[in-house]
Structure formats: C-alpha cells, structure tokens
Amino acid sequence: MGVAGLAVAPLPAVEIEAKTTAVVIFYSIMAATGGLMMGYDVGISGQVTTSDSFLKKFFPLAYDKIQREETDTNNYCKYENEGLQVFTSALHLTALTSTFLASRTTRLMGRKKTMLFGGLLFILGTVLCSTALSFPMLILGRIALGSGIGFSNQSTPLYLSEISPTPIRGALTLLFQFDITLGILFGNFTAYASSGVESDWGWRITLALAGVPALFFTLGTILIEDTPNSLIERGQLEKGKLVLRKIRGTDNVEPEYLEILRASRVAQAVENPFADLLMGQNGPPLVIAIMVQVFQQFTGINAIMLYSPLLFKTLGFGDKSSLYSSVITGGVNALSTCIAIYSVDKIGRRMLLLEAGVQMFLSQLIIAVILALKVDDDSNTLSHGMAIGVVIMLCTFVSSYAWSWGPLAWLLPSETFPLETRSAGLSVTVCVNMMFTFLIAQSFPTMLCQMKFGIFLFFSGWVLAMSLFAFYLLPETKGIPIEEMLERLWKQHWFWKKFMEDEIKENEDSD
C-alpha cells in the first residue's frame, strides 16, 4: 500500500537534545570522503584526455586530428571529438543507472554497506583503468568507476544528513561537497605534476592515484556505524537506540528515537517508494530535488571543471599555464566551500543561493564580453591582461558556486524527503545529477565550438532562471529537524502547502 492512505498522527513538537560529539564528527569525516572519489575524477579528466600518450594509445584518430588542427584558425574547435566526449561522460552514464540499484541496497542493507560497496567498485575501476592495455579494458574500468560513484553518491549525503544533529546538519552534510572540491584540487595537482611525463607512466600514475581517496573511503566505512534511521527502519531497534545515544552524547534520546520509529513504521508500509514519490507530500521535495540538480549542472561548473585544461588551452594559455590556472580554480573551489560549511546553518540556504546567483551571473557575463572583444577566429591567444581577467572572473564564478549551488544541491534533497521515500528520492537526485552531467560533458566541446563566447551567455541565462526559482519556490530548511519537515516546512510554505492540503482532503474523502 502507499503511504498516502496511512494515517499516522505526528508526535507533538518536543525539544530534541543533541550534543556535537567527537563520534558524530568522526563518522561524518569518514563518510564524506566518498566525495573525494568523484572530485578526483573530475580534476584529472581534462588532463588525461589531452595527454598525447593517452590519445595515441586509445584514440589515435583523435590524436591525428588534433595534431592536424594545431594551426587551425578556429581555436574554439580544436578539441571537439566524439570519442573523447564519450570517454569523459561514460562514467556519469554508468553512475546514473547504478544509483537505482543503490537505492534498494541502501534501504534493505543499510547506508554503510552501500557506501562500502561503492568504495570497492571504485577501487576495481581504478585498477582496470590504470593498467588498461586495450580500449575495452579502459571502458570496463570507467564502468566500475561510475558504478562506485553511483553507489557512494546515493548513500553518502543520506548518511550524513541522518546522523547530524539539527543545529549543524547543514555543515556536516556539506562535508561531502567539501571533499569533492578537495578531490578536484588533488586531481589538479596530480595532473600538473604528471604533465611533463611524455610516456604512458604519466596518465597511468594519474589514474592509479584515484585509488588513494577510494581506499580512504572504503576503510572509513568499515570504521563507522550505520545511521539510527537505517537501523530502526530495518528492525534493529535496540542497536539503533544505542547508536543514537552514542552519536548524540546523551541518554535522553527518547523523543528523537520515537520520531524516527514513527517515520520507520510509515516507511515499512511503503511497498514501492518510487511510486510514492509521485504522491502529494512527496511532490514538493521531488520537484526541489530535480530542479536543484538541473540548475546545478546548468551553472556550467562541470563544463569548466571537467574541461578546464582544454578550456584554458582553447583560450590561448600554454600547456603548463593552463594546468596551473586549473589548479588555481580548484583551490578557490575548495576554500570557498569552507564558507558554505561555516555559514549554512547561520544565514540559511536561500541567502547563500540568492547572493551567489548575482555573483555567478555577473562573472559569466563579463567573461563573455571579454572573449567577444578579444578572441576571434584569427587569434590563437589572449593578451596577458585579458587572460588574467578571464582567470579572475572564472575564480569569482567558481567561488560563488562553491558556497551555493555546489554543496546545497546535495544538502537540500538529503534533508527534505520523508524517511519512507528518502532512499528513492536520493536515487532520483543522483540520477538527475549524473544525467545532466553526462549531457554537459558530452556536449560541451561541441557547444564551445558552435557557440564560442556565447556559451557563457547561455549559462548566465540559466543562472538567472535558477535565482528566480530559489527566490520564489525554495523554502528555508535551516534549523528544522529532518523528520519534522512535513509539518514545519511544507505545510507552511505559501506555494507547496496546497499539495499537502490536497492530499489531506483526498485521505478524508477515502475515509
């Protein structure tokens, strides 16, 4: 049966006691290392796909084409190649499909085991890619990497949101995004260090070092406990209460325990959580989850991060300077995420999104103007001053993204779905994220070639649209316990409450 017809009275509002314990901090840090894996792959993809030895081995036709076009006057189109685009985006397509299996394992086996399986898959993919002797072996490795990311991205934000005490839930959940930025930075440094190695050892070492974050994550998941929500949902009531006392640092966990128990009883009555996602009370969080993922990708951030070496080389930077500029943007990304961790539970989610919208819109607009004025089909370089200006504006854009749509696109879905559809909701979230990451990764070089500087105008238009969405339709979740979102958030919002009222009316009519 669906949850819509199940009448379960909400508990009266009570004060939940929770301390910020060393245990919950340790568990959060260990779980968040799942973000390192995804970030590292983003950080190295652009460098690996522009490595001469890598191209010669796996994409000889693409290598010959690039060599022939080194003197091509249209510097926007040098790296347009379908094979390379498929290689980069294949990982995201695999992650997209694997997240639905991850939803089932997360619900039936727990968050911890799903994260552990994701780490093991990523290690397998690392071994296959770094030792690849043929194209099929390389693609098989990419499939394993994508599956590992699908499992870890589905379960890690869910784990973090469930173990976090309400006052600092935003900060602890954002550790996942912070580790993504650290992974990107680590990947940028690795790419820069190996850029001078002409033999196969350069790209092989770069790919092999992906095993470092995967190993951290795998060992970390062995050391942590599953969430009380997951344990109670799967019938392990005593262990769930024990873990709850452990992470909250108090014996007075009865109010929170009863709230989780109530939510788990509703969850156990749901036979098909994916079908229930389409019902009234799940509609608003589902729309929010989908839209923030779509908007996150259409900021243009993954186009910049995945192809930053390619982008800088296209704009006339030399090989070394393009990688160096990528390291700079990666560093800005990581440092700026710290701002989100510090401020998200103080000033709230909406304020960060709205401020960043203005900053991202202006920076992309300025980049488009610079490129329109200074880069044309007869020039393969930017002037020194204009090149610095582009880097500054890109850093301005990256910094605003890093404290807004980057981390909050993972935080908001993890804290707004009710327990009965939370695993399924996070699967849809990861699926949509990977789907649009796939589309952007697949199409960016072609878009750059066809649209030229207009690509930044394209993304800035999306930034304007997402800012309007955040202003009118995105509710503030700061300070609301995760199992009380329905009563205290959705039923109070000026727009979304009508979906709650419609469902209540339907339930009354059915009675």
Automatic annotation (TrEMBL):
<dbReference type="InterPro" id="IPR005828">
    <property type="entry name" value="MFS_sugar_transport-like"/>
</dbReference>
<feature type="transmembrane region" description="Helical">
    <location>
        <begin position="423"/>
        <end position="441"/>
    </location>
</feature>
<dbReference type="InterPro" id="IPR045262">
    <property type="entry name" value="STP/PLT_plant"/>
</dbReference>
<keyword id="KW-1133">Transmembrane helix</keyword>
<comment type="similarity">
    <text>Belongs to the major facilitator superfamily. Sugar transporter (TC 2.A.1.1) family.</text>
</comment>
<protein>
    <submittedName>
        <fullName>Sugar transport protein MST4-like</fullName>
    </submittedName>
</protein>
<feature type="transmembrane region" description="Helical">
    <location>
        <begin position="385"/>
        <end position="403"/>
    </location>
</feature>
<dbReference type="InterPro" id="IPR020846">
    <property type="entry name" value="MFS_dom"/>
</dbReference>
<dbReference type="InterPro" id="IPR036259">
    <property type="entry name" value="MFS_trans_sf"/>
</dbReference>
<dbReference type="GO" id="GO:0016020">
    <property type="term" value="C:membrane"/>
</dbReference>
<feature type="transmembrane region" description="Helical">
    <location>
        <begin position="356"/>
        <end position="373"/>
    </location>
</feature>
<feature type="transmembrane region" description="Helical">
    <location>
        <begin position="323"/>
        <end position="344"/>
    </location>
</feature>
<feature type="domain" description="Major facilitator superfamily (MFS) profile">
    <location>
        <begin position="27"/>
        <end position="478"/>
    </location>
</feature>
<feature type="transmembrane region" description="Helical">
    <location>
        <begin position="84"/>
        <end position="103"/>
    </location>
</feature>
<feature type="transmembrane region" description="Helical">
    <location>
        <begin position="205"/>
        <end position="224"/>
    </location>
</feature>
<dbReference type="GO" id="GO:0015293">
    <property type="term" value="F:symporter activity"/>
</dbReference>
<keyword id="KW-0762">Sugar transport</keyword>
<dbReference type="InterPro" id="IPR044778">
    <property type="entry name" value="MFS_STP/MST-like_plant"/>
</dbReference>
<keyword id="KW-0813">Transport</keyword>
<feature type="transmembrane region" description="Helical">
    <location>
        <begin position="115"/>
        <end position="139"/>
    </location>
</feature>
<feature type="transmembrane region" description="Helical">
    <location>
        <begin position="286"/>
        <end position="311"/>
    </location>
</feature>
<dbReference type="GO" id="GO:0015145">
    <property type="term" value="F:monosaccharide transmembrane transporter activity"/>
</dbReference>
<keyword id="KW-0769">Symport</keyword>
<dbReference type="Pfam" id="PF00083">
    <property type="entry name" value="Sugar_tr"/>
</dbReference>
<feature type="transmembrane region" description="Helical">
    <location>
        <begin position="453"/>
        <end position="474"/>
    </location>
</feature>
<dbReference type="InterPro" id="IPR003663">
    <property type="entry name" value="Sugar/inositol_transpt"/>
</dbReference>
<dbReference type="InterPro" id="IPR005829">
    <property type="entry name" value="Sugar_transporter_CS"/>
</dbReference>
<keyword id="KW-0812">Transmembrane</keyword>
<keyword id="KW-0472">Membrane</keyword>
